[in-house]
UniProtKB/TrEMBL annotation:
Chain ranges passing through the membrane: none
Domain of life: Bacteria
Protein name: Glycoside hydrolase family 5 domain-containing protein
Tagged with keyword Signal: yes
Signal peptide location: 1-27
Taxonomic lineage from the root: Bacteria, Bacillati, Bacillota, Bacilli, Bacillales
Keywords: Signal
Length: 496
């Protein structure tokens, strides 16, 4: 009987662990991350440094805005020498991205096309724009194309001609059969407001001049079984630069705001978004407006909210670096790194973004308490990154932690993040709570440490491994002593 009770108890424990493990892993599945690169095409066409960081961060996508006509002489055409030079740069950027396993979302807006007379207010001008889009698709091996950017905030598309943008989307989507592997993305509105969606939701816009309630869009959907002339619905949820869990958009939380947009129906009662995948092709906070610490906190919380909504397929953080221009510029300080005036230094927001994309550091679904461990992420990126560490993994002694950093040691006085499948093999980054630096533990030292009670027996590491020329040993220091090894000998412990 006692044996049966013990067996039942063991089975209950195993089932509990299986449930806990499956619940944890399903709740924390990582999304593909993207980032907006800004005007870095000169650098990105000649230098792979930023791409290496994108790869170390395990990003899936970058967003580039085609600007062949930016800064070129007036009256230039696609065959002009200056435009051709810019085209060559963009082609190299895309090739570099693909060489690092990144996909590319290209954006076509004002500076990607020559001046088209009367665009978009005549059908002939829309056909000229369509030809310009086709030129881009013929010349650039992009994985997705965004048709315009923030049309509701753009001089070409005002609140009185958004039906013309609907026609533009329809005409451009007619190219889809020629480019079946390219995703067509839109409408990429800022906050999904300004009459773009319904035009009848209390903001004073004429429904006929919204995109989805325009006659041409209603007729298109009626003739195409309710489909939109898009593969992906996108918008830019900037809100009013408030806390996504608080006053995100005129007194509404992000959750309320998102649910309102998801529930939008056109004048026929048909839901607009339906089951279409959603991309946030920009989101973020301006540190000049909210401060660097709130930029970090709000981004942390937003990532958690995005995780909880599986229809949001790919979020693109805006952006990689702060704008190079001075105070008063439009883009300001949205970057995860500062600009060249500050040596491209990491900002606090870098760490939750890196934690999310690299599967490095602590993670909580609600963005509260420990989210990222800055020192662990810095160590990971400065000592080999993805190639050296491989992937975060579930240690067999503690599967319930999933693949995240977790507390360990007496009174949970330290944190360990474990990795495998990189050039270091099975390894870990360790940090004592309150310490300034994290340290790498790998090879025989890692195996010895984790299999012999680690911090309980030896304390936390106080150095990386190093070669001691006086003794001929490879060593690593810990609070209570050091580990040492030389060829032909086993790893041994030497107490202080």
């Amino acid at each position: 009987m006692k044996a049966m009770v013990k067996l039942k108890h063991l089975i209950s424990m195993v089932l509990a662990l299986v449930f806990l493990f499956s619940t944890f892993t399903s709740a924390s599945a990582f999304k593909t991350q993207g980032i907006v690169t800004g005007r870095l095409y000169n650098e990105l066409s000649t230098n792979l440094t930023a791409f290496q960081e994108f790869q170390d961060l395990k990003l899936g996508w970058i967003r580039i805005e085609f600007e062949e006509f930016y800064g070129v002489p007036a009256g230039s055409t696609f065959t002009s020498a200056a435009v051709q030079a810019n085209k060559t740069k963009f082609q190299q950027v895309i090739a570099n991205a693909h060489s690092k396993g990144l996909k590319v979302l290209g954006v076509i807006a004002n500076s990607a096309i020559p001046d088209i007379p009367n665009f978009p207010n005549t059908d002939a001008s829309i056909q000229s724009f369509k030809s310009a889009v086709q030129w881009h698709l013929d010349n650039y091996n992009v994985d997705a194309i965004q048709i315009w950017n923030e049309p509701s905030a753009n001089v070409k598309f005002t609140n009185t001609n958004l039906a013309r943008y609907a026609k533009t989307l329809i005409e451009v989507y007619a190219l889809k059969p020629q480019y079946p592997n390219v995703k067509f993305v839109g409408p990429a509105t800022a906050n999904a407001e300004a009459g773009v969606w319904l035009g009848q939701h209390g903001y004073g816009y004429d429904p006929e001049n919204s995109i989805f309630n325009s006659t041409i869009m209603l007729n298109y959907r009626a003739a195409n079984n309710g489909k939109l002339p898009l593969d992906v619905i996108s918008w830019h949820p900037y809100g009013t630069q408030g806390d996504p869990n608080g006053n995100f958009y005129f007194g509404r939380t992000f959750a309320t705001y998102y649910n309102e947009i998801k529930a939008y129906t056109d004048v026929t009662g048909r839901n607009v978004i339906g089951s279409y995948p959603i991309w946030f092709t920009e989101y973020g906070w301006d540190a000049n407006l909210v401060g660097e610490e709130n930029q970090r906190i709000y981004t942390e919380r937003m990532i958690g909210l995005i995780y909880a909504r599986p229809q949001i397929e790919i979020p693109f953080l805006y952006g990689f670096r702060d704008d190079e221009d001075g105070p008063g510029t439009e883009d300001k300080a949205f970057g995860i790194r500062k600009n060249s005036l500050f040596g491209y230094a990491k900002k606090r927001v870098f760490y939750p973004f890196a934690s999310h994309s690299s599967i490095v550091g602590l993670f909580t679904q609600d963005g509260v308490n420990e989210w990222t461990v800055d020192q662990i992420i810095d160590k990971y990126l400065s000592s080999g990154g993805r190639a050296a560490y491989g992937d975060a993994y579930r240690h067999s002694n503690a599967p319930w932690y999933g693949d995240k950093a977790h507390y360990w040691g007496p009174g949970n006085n330290g944190i360990i993040q474990q990795f495998n499948n990189g050039s270091y093999g099975e390894c870990g980054i360790l940090l004592k709570v309150g310490a300034a630096n994290a340290y790498l533990l790998k090879g025989g030292f890692y195996t010895f440490y984790v299999n012999n009670n680690g911090p309980y027996a030896y304390g936390w590491p106080t150095s990386d491994e190093y070669y001691d020329s006086a003794t001929g040993y490879v060593m690593q220091k810990f609070e209570n002593g050091k580990l040492r090894w030389k060829s032909g000998e086993a790893v041994t412990w030497v107490s202080n």
